[in-house]
């Protein structure tokens, strides 16, 4: 079995071997190559010590020297070269107490998480597959190397990684591996929010975001995202819905494009429903005002998982506005754009469409036709260049002050009144008209 190694990887391996050291491409790059996928990066493992690696290559960076990793710079590219190692006892579900270097490739591969990530390759020996990772690739299975109980006790995040790989690759989870997740899932509570966030996002933006259901079945979301568990438990039988809130959420995740903000918005858009659910005498559930409550919960989740402010703001704005139904006419769409934000309106339309596709199929046709009309009108608005915000208004606060109006809150209210007129009638976005109208509004305010 032959893998086409990049030239720079071959140069590193050749340099190691020329000086009597073993060297292999290892891990995800081997897995992806065997699957016919383009690896995002190439990692190398070797029996050479970090000090020896640094002597062999003129340009290196000590990126993970405590764990035996040196980044070798080849031009503008960096390649992680890690010394074979054996991890000592794990004390915190992540970090080994100590790391011992070894001359054995087998010992190094034994400490890795899954069989599909524990294969090595060089051109001299070919594929080194000690744990039947190639067979697991062929059969579409994620399986731990050795005892899954040990692998997860070493690093609890591997439980989320297992589900994430299932989502990314479309694989199943081997039975013993799944059982070990259920046994040890509570230890995920000791993993940092940043690491949990990274794995969650990778799962969500994968080709199979519905694998979040597997995370729920294994108890993972109960630890890292209990809001989802509450949604899975909340029924919502009505004319528009045939799924629980959680199942609806899974459907919407699969219906929206694979952007980080979009997938997070769909994950969190109905988190407020369980808290405000009411049930009428016919057994129908109602969730009045759930969008605002969902936005509050979304904000809490984003903060807890340490998302950056930019991402959190965009997600929360989409969640808050996902129940907005602008009237399907130019004024209605302009006002919708103003409320949601010009920057987010295209994403808003995607959220609306995904939300519909997670509802009862009998409501799809009418609602999708409505959304098609919104999109058509939106395109026409962009083509005309209609004013949609204060930034594009033909007058500014300074213009009004120069025309004799006093600065302060009243001035801001006048600007908003002028924008309101322009949203209704974009042809009124003329400097002379708006200055005159501003004077009239100011004079009325002083009466």
UniProtKB/TrEMBL annotation:
Keyword Nucleotidyltransferase tagged = yes
Q: Is the keyword RNA-binding in the record?
A: yes
Query: Ranges for the CCA-adding enzyme C-terminal domain?
Result: 298-436
The entry's keywords: Magnesium, Metal-binding, Nucleotide-binding, Nucleotidyltransferase, RNA-binding, Transferase, tRNA processing
Residue ranges annotated for the tRNA nucleotidyltransferase/poly(A) polymerase RNA and SrmB- binding domain, each copy included: 170-231
- A Pfam family annotated for this UniProt entry: PolyA_pol
Highest rank taxon of the organism: Bacteria
Q: Which GO terms describe its molecular function?
A: metal ion binding; nucleotide binding; nucleotidyltransferase activity; tRNA binding
**Start and end residues of each Poly A polymerase head domain:** 24-143
Q: Please give the cofactor(s) recorded in the UniProt entry for this protein.
A: Mg(2+)
Q: Which GO terms describe its biological process?
A: tRNA processing
Protein family: Belongs to the tRNA nucleotidyltransferase/poly(A) polymerase family.
User: What name does this protein carry?
Assistant: HD domain-containing protein
**Can you name the source organism?**
Candidatus Merdiplasma excrementigallinarum
